[in-house]
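User: Hey, quick favor. My workstation is busy. Could you predict this chain's structure for me?
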Amino acid sequence: MSNMRAVSSASAWTPSLSRTAAAPMDASDLADAPVSSPSAIVALSDNIGPSAAKAASDPGHAPPLQWERASRDAVSALMANNFAAGASAGRFKGLGAALLDQVRGGVTQLSQTAQRSAGGVQAGTYAALAGGVSGALHGMGDDRFSLGITTRSGVEVKLSLDSDGDALGVQLTASGALSDEETHALGQLSKAFQQAIDGMAQDPPQLRLGGLMQFDAKQLASVELRAQVGLNTTPPSVQTLSFQADAMQRKVAFSGAAGSLDVKVDASKAASLGGPEQQARAMKSYMRQFDQAATRGHADGALMSLFKETFSTLHSPVGEAARLSTGGTTPGKWALAAEDRAMLTGLADFSAKVVQTPKMDNPMRLSEQDAFSYEVGQATSLGGRSYDERSIAQQQSASLSASFHMPLVAGTTLRLTGQPESQNYTYHQIDDTASSLASIAYQDGKLAKASLEQSSSQNTRVQRYEMGKLKSDLASPSVNSLTRDLVAALGPYQAGQAQLNQEQKAQQRTQMLSALNDQVFLTATAGR
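Assistant: No problem, here it is.
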């Protein structure tokens, strides 16, 4: 049986100091403490208080740090070293990894806050420097990250990092005892946690969540990350992130200055998941669709890159879902035949949406917004009383709504002002939809239905203005549809096979099913 690590109290965890009580606690005092190597220097907001700003500009006369708890641990040492950076960017450098590394070392309770002492506090007043901070910053910082992990045994481990003006705080708690295996699994996520922090802090941000997706599903049940980072915009704004993952579902919601995205992946219908090769084809098809939508709607490149990265990351296999995606089944269901899988994308069901922050760049017509919104989804249903009576349906859908201004002369820069001389442009409005429905059903073990229905509509409206006056207003609707009966194509007997041996027939059928699978993916131009 695995050894269990008992949850220690905060006071029992804190080691005694080997310095006099009157000595202030700062980076120099913690130089001998082991410090985790920082993974990157991040670029968070510069929202710092006056004391920290003064310290950054004149580190030689910086006021001493006040601490929630006197300690010589690696996390406190790193906090002291990072604090000199002033801005929250440097303050989180390597701190997430260092905090989670404490779990690897057996620490299950930790709380620390560093704060520049207020004016008038003397450096030799130990009571004001150690134990003089309440720790109320935890979970309340202007810039903050929190990581919540639940183990298979039900233990909840929570970590938080907060930066607010003149203060920096970290906290680690565990609701119960951790086994050696759980401790090891948690420690393996320290690098991934820091990567997520560093990515969120970049400009433009990156959602580096792949590492957190690869948690040990045998020991850990779920991982949840939340973040808020201040932005140096006018007016000031924040970017936020919410990430959740377990063996059956993954979710990401992000909001920033450029826009927002929301992606949810449902891996609970494991029977419909395809193998790695089929999923790779499906992912390539969707990436191509996203690029086409971004080009047609003139989307923000960085925001769409973030959307594509998130969509791809959340579809990567994790834990038990990785095994199931190779052909396993869920309890009470059955393995699908090769003909069934050829009718499906192979991806887990999902819903995904990206919305660009609208811009009103034409002061003469504020109703003309530069905007972009794209939504795409997939839903699969598996029914029937038995394998011989099974039915499968998979619905894919997408919608694009966009509007943007273009100069009348290609290659020139459009600068719209309140003067008629600047009002020479075309205003484009895009409204597109696409859908696909694949259906297959069996009766008495025989294929009774197999069909593919696809439709798409593209609507474009272009208004042309010269010297601020409307010169033309053209609408270009386009509707396409396609319906295919695939019973004959999926049947066991095919023409032209009389001269083939069994191995050749099997190879030909595999190629035919692969070619059919390439046609089930959603397309914005169905029937063309």
